[in-house]
Amino acid sequence: MNPLKPLLEPVIQPVLNKATAIIPIHWQIKGAHAFQHAKNRVGRGRPVPTFKEVPLPEVSTLALQDIDLSNPFLYRQGLWHSYFKRLRDECPVHYQKHSPFGPFWSITRYEDILFVDTHHDLFSAEPIISIGPQPEGLEIETFIAMDPPKHDVQRQAVQGVVAPKNLAQMEALIRSRTADVLDQLPIDEPFDWVQKVSIELTSRMLATLFDFPFDQRHKLAYWSDVAAGAPESTGGNANTDEFFRAAADMAKQMSLLWREKEARKAAGEEPGFDLISLLLANDDTRDMINRPMEFMGNMVLLIIGGNDTTRNSMTGGVFALNQFPDEFTKLRKNPGLIPNMVSEIIRWQTPLAYMRRVAKQDVALNGQTIKKGDKVVMWYASGNRDERAFEQDPDQFIIDRKNVRKHLSFGFGVHRCMGNRLAEMQLRILWEEILKRFDHIEVLDEPGYVQSNFVRGYSTMNVKLSARH
Amino acid sequence: MGKITFVEHSGTAHIVEIAEGQSLMQTAIDNGVPGIDADCGGACACGTCHVILHSDWVQAAGSINADEQGMLGLTPEKTDASRLACQITVSEALDGLIVHLPEFQM
Ligand code: HEM
Ligand code: FES
Question: Do the chains contact at B41 and A163, CB–CB below 8 Å?
Answer without folding.
Answer: no
